[in-house]
Amino acid sequence: MRRDPGERINADAMAKSCVGINDFALACAVDESPGYFTYNGQTMLVIQAAQDAKVGQSSFSQIEPFMGALVSHEAIHVAIKRLEGDEASESLDDIEVIVEHNGRRFQVTLNNILFASDDSGLVVP
Questions:
Q1: Ramachandran angles phi, psi of 10, nearest 5°
Q2: Measured between alpha carbons, how far is 42 from 19 in angstroms, rounded to an integer?
Q3: CA distance 122 to 110
């Protein structure tokens, strides 16, 4: 069904039809975990390490080149969760593959961004 170009888009309806990340939130860990990325619903959460926050240091100073891959990776989790459920989505990070990097072979998890070859955030052999 085509939408009339003058028709207003309902933001709630649009958010429900979207299967990826559509918002970001920054937070600080309350335990001793290092900084990390996760999601809640369709919101990507950037969690700073409590220890870094206390001393005014960024947990992500070297992460900027990987942001596209990180957002894509979390969006894949959101889509899989919506289509297949939470267990299937979370199991994505348990899959291991063997990849070759600089002439050496490594067994890494599918979410090891350092070994991803594109901005999908996935390691593909």
A1: -75, 115
A2: 8
A3: 5
d(CA 106, CA 37): 23
As a dihedral over the C-alpha atoms of residue 93, residue 88, residue 120, residue 60, rounded to 10 degrees, the angle is -50
Structure tokens at 116: 């991803």
Per-residue tokens: 47:
């969690």
Using one digit for the tens of pLDDT, what is the confidence trace for 78-120? 888 888 899 998 898 899 999 998 899 999 998 888 888 888 8
The model's pTM: 0.71
- Cβ(40)–Cβ(47) under 8 Å? no
Sign of the CA dihedral 92, 86, 70, 118? positive
